[in-house]
Write a sequence for this structure.
């Protein structure tokens, strides 16, 4: 499944299985069956409710990677939201893939989290941003009542970095 997540083709998966010692390799239909099961697990994770847990902090970040879209390799934005619970435990709340980090994309992503139950309850959560993306701050203000804080990558709420110990 990890090979599928990393975008390895069916033929390369077959070659990998043979290299690991399986004489027969793996059929295209078996790869498709495994991928369908993985798609269902990912959909279940992405659609789960977030209302059961409070997260005083929500960290937002993004990166770009190359992906195959319509028989072409293109750069895609991958955004992620990580909740930090009061006890310091972290949980990936959601992620999404899009063409760019424009305001509409961020707003849609944040609305999807809110629809799934991330609303801050009585006290709004604080949003920490690792990216100085111009579209992100307006999206956060539009969708949430949260305060926004810029952070460096070596400091995260609930964890001391070497400069604060």
């Amino acid at each position: 499944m990890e090979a599928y997540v990393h975008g390895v083709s069916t033929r390369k998966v077959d070659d990998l299985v043979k290299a690991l010692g399986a004489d027969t390799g793996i059929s295209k239909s078996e790869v498709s069956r495994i991928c369908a099961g993985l798609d269902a697990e990912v959909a279940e994770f992405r659609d789960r409710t977030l209302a059961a847990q409070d997260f005083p902090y929500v960290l937002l970040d993004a990166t770009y990677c190359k992906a195959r879209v319509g028989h072409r390799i293109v750069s895609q934005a991958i955004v992620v939201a990580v909740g930090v619970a009061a006890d310091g435990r972290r949980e990936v709340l959601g992620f999404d893939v899009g063409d760019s980090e424009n305001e509409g994309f961020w707003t849609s992503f944040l609305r999807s989290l809110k629809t799934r139950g991330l609303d801050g309850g009585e006290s709004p959560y604080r949003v920490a941003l690792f990216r100085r993306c111009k579209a992100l701050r307006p999206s956060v203000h539009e969708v949430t009542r949260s305060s926004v804080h810029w952070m460096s990558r070596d400091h995260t709420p609930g964890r001391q970095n070497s400069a604060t110990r």
User: Anything to note?
Assistant: The longest strand covers residues 57-69. Residues 88 and 99 are 32 Å apart (CA to CA). Residues 2-47 form one domain.
